[in-house]
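A further point concerns the way the authors explain their paired sequence and structure data. Showing the layout once, in full, would remove most of the difficulty. For illustration, here is how one protein appears when written out as sequence plus structure tokens:
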Amino acid sequence: MASSPPISHSSPSSHPDAVLGISDRLALERTRLANERTILAYLRTGIALVVAGFSLINFFRGYLYVWVGVLLVPVGFGTVVLGWVRFRNKRNTILGVLHRHQAHNKSTLLVEE
């Protein structure tokens, strides 16, 4: 029976000179992809809120509907902005981990900058 190489369970930041193992590189890639899915969910939600707000304003003439529509539009834009800020912060964190280990690791991990 062939023995498998040991798997490092230490965090990347605990050993700044350590080379990222395949499991750590794949974990970073999964984290990057999850971050992209999350920004898309924020965008989808924000767009839906803006469209719902404009729909209420244009198709209903009742006082309550118009005010709910007026409230939904800025909430939708706020959702998009909040999502973008969170995406950028997480992306910078992920890139920071990769840059700390880039000098020691010549992998083909795909990360957009």
DSSP finds two helices and no strands in the chain. Residues 74 and 97 are 35 Å apart (CA to CA). Helices lie at 22-59, 63-102.
